[in-house]
Design brief:
Elements (H helix, E strand, L loop, with lengths): L4 E5 L4 H12 L3 E6 L2 H13 L3 E6 L5 H14 L4 E4 L14 H29 L2 E6 L2 H5 L5 H21 L4 E8 L5 H4 L3 H9 L9 H12 L10 E4 L6
Parallel strand pairs: 1-2, 1-4, 2-3, 4-5, 5-6, 6-7
Helix pairs in contact: 1-9, 3-4, 4-6
The structure holds NADP nicotinamide-adenine-dinucleotide phosphate.
Length: 243
C-alpha cells in the first residue's frame, strides 16, 4: 500500500475528523485543516496516539488568502496527493427571506472554497501523475430540500464540479469523486429537533442514522489504489435514503 500526503478540510470534528483518522490508519500522512486550532490539535493527537502522522494548518475556506497561506504551509510538508474537500456549513432559511449574505457564505465556503483548494493541489498532482480529489457533497444535493436552497446549490455544484474535473484531469491520472452522505450524526445534525429527526428516520431504509466513520471508510476507499479506475462517480453513503 502506498503512503501519501492527504489534506483534509474540516478535520477538526465530525466527518472530516473521522476521514483524517481513517486515512492515517491507511498509512497516509495527514494535514488537518480547519479554523479551530485547538480542535485540530485534538484530532492530530488522536492520530499520533494511534501511530499515525499528522500536521495541522489553520484555514478559513471563505477567504482565498487564507486558503493560499494554508497550502503554502502544506507544500513545505510535501506534495498533496489526496485532497478531501469536506468542510461545509449550513445557513438554512426559506428562499423568499434568505439574506444575500447567507447565500454567499454557504456558496463561498462549500463550493468556491473547495474549488480554490483543488486549484492549489493540481500542479503537484499533475507533476506526479497521480492524484485523488474527494468532494463531500450531500444527499440533498441530489434530491433537493426545502429551506436549504443555498446549501443544496453548493452541494449540487460540487457534484457538477466533480464530474467536469474527472473528465478534465483523467488523462493525468487524477481521479475526482464525490461522496453524498445522508443523515450522519455530527454537530451539523445535532441541532435538528426531534420531529425532524423522526421524520428523517422514517425515510431511511436502514432505519438508523449514519456515523462519521461510515463516511470515512468511503473516503479511505476512494483515496486508495483499489479505487484507481473510479472517477466522476457519486458514492451514496445514505442508508438508502435517496436512490
Ligand atoms: P460539522 O460537524 O459541522 O463540521 C464541519 C467542519 O467544517 C468543521 O471541521 C469545521 O471546522 C469546518 N469548517 C466550517 N466552516 C469552515 C471554514 N470557513 N473554513 C474551514 N473549515 C470550516 O459537519 P459534518 O457533519 O462533519 O459535515 C462535514 C461535511 O459533510 C460538510 O460538507 C457537510 O455539508 C457534509 N454532510 C454532512 C451530513 C451530515 O448529516 N452530518 C450530511 C451530508 C453532507 P472549524 O469550525 O474548526 O473551522
Amino acid at each position: 500500500m502506498s503512503s501519501r500526503i492527504a489534506f483534509v478540510t474540516g478535520a477538526s470534528r465530525g466527518i472530516g475528523r473521522a476521514a483524517a483518522l481513517s486515512l492515517a490508519s491507511a498509512g497516509h500522512t495527514v494535514i488537518l485543516a480547519a479554523r479551530d486550532q485547538q480542535k485540530l490539535d485534538e484530532t492530530a493527537q488522536a492520530i499520533r496516539q494511534a501511530g499515525g502522522i499528522a500536521h495541522t494548518v489553520q484555514i478559513d475556506l471563505s477567504s482565498p488568502d487564507s486558503i493560499q497561506q494554508a497550502f503554502a504551509k502544506a507544500k513545505e510538508i510535501g506534495t498533496v496527493s489526496i485532497l478531501v474537500n469536506n468542510a461545509g456549513i449550513t445557513r438554512d432559511g426559506l428562499a423568499m427571506r434568505m439574506k444575500p449574505e447567507d447565500w454567499a457564505a454557504v456558496l463561498n465556503t462549500n463550493l468556491t472554497g473547495a474549488f480554490l483548494c483543488i486549484q492549489q493541489v493540481l500542479q503537484g498532482m499533475m507533476k506526479e501523475r497521480w492524484g485523488r480529489i474527494i468532494n463531500i457533497a450531500s444527499v440533498v444535493g441530489e434530491s433537493g430540500n426545502a429551506g436549504q436552497a443555498n446549501y443544496v446549490a453548493s452541494k449540487a455544484g460540487l457534484v457538477g464540479l466533480t464530474k467536469s474535473l474527472a473528465i478534465e484531469l483523467g488523462s493525468r491520472n487524477i481521479t475526482v469523486n464525490a461522496i453524498t452522505p445522508g443523515f450522519i450524526e455530527t454537530d451539523m445534525t445535532a441541532v435538528l429537533g426531534e420531529p425532524v429527526r423522526e421524520k428523517m428516520l422514517a425515510a431511511i431504509p436502514l432505519k438508523r442514522f449514519g456515523q462519521p466513520e461510515e463516511v470515512a471508510s468511503a473516503v479511505k476507499f476512494l483515496a486508495g489504489d483499489e479505487a484507481a479506475y473510479i472517477t466522476g462517480s457519486v458514492l451514496r453513503v445514505n442508508g438508502g435514503m435517496y436512490l
